[in-house]
């Protein structure tokens, strides 16, 4: 009995098949075939079939394998329904697992390198930014000192111009504000709001104190208690 099946002739990982007419008793691989009715290239997806020759052999009783049967139907050699192929399908081109693993490993390495380069770039940017800030501070520091000296001189000059009595009263008023048993935070908040004497503080109502930034309910209660 004759069979029409695929006979592989391609190199490793490059499958190519002849569609041959061969005795059913021939081994799965190799064996002398009677005739060739076409070729099948699964890699390039090209199939060439001699329709007349294939039909002639089928008429003589040659039985196509499941895979060849489906190819014949697909290319119009015969009509009918395709059959399920339960055996290992020689048309299937299996992916190269080793190549896939290498590709995956290469992609992971590239991803790690990109991540390291990104982190390094960010670190370099931060270092440059810190360095620039330090240089800026170093340049501004002498200017700040000069401005501070000028301000001190101007204040001293103004103080000298004021009457001694006013100067004495201001010192006493400042001393009185600092003499209150208040925390530094409360004192600074009051001074930021323009309240630098006990006299000014005593004129503020509870509602007005509540509007000052940095003063909470407990801080206001402490101020009221110290003013009693």
The largest sheet is: 5 strands, mixed
**Strand order in the sheet with the most strands:** 4-3-2-1-5
In CATH, the architecture of the largest domain is: 2-Layer Sandwich
Distance separating the two termini: 122 Å
- Strand % is 5-15%
The CATH superfamily of the largest domain is known as Ribosomal protein S16
Descriptive report:
By secondary structure, the protein is of the alpha+beta class. The protein has 3 domains: 2-74, 2-Layer Sandwich (S16 Ribosomal Protein, Chain: A); 95-161; 171-227, DNA polymerase, domain 1, CATH 1.10.150.20. It has 8 helices and 5 strands, in the order E-E-E-E-H-E-H-H-H-H-H-H-H. A hairpin with a 4-residue loop joins strand 3 and strand 4 (46-49). The N and C termini lie far apart (122 Å). The relative contact order is 0.06. The model is unreliable at 89-94 (pLDDT under 50).
Which structural traits does this protein have?
228 residues, alpha+beta, DNA polymerase, domain 1, 3 domains, five-stranded mixed sheet, 5 strands, rod-shaped
Lay out the secondary structure:
Layout: E1 2-8, E2 17-23, E3 35-41, E4 46-49, H1 51-59, E5 63-64, H2 66-74, H3 97-161, H4 164-179, H5 184-192, H6 198-202, H7 206-210, H8 217-227
Parallel strand pairs: 1-5
Antiparallel strand pairs: 1-2, 2-3, 3-4
In short:
This protein has 228 residues and is an alpha+beta fold. It is built from 8 helices and 5 strands. The model is unreliable at 89-94 (pLDDT under 50).
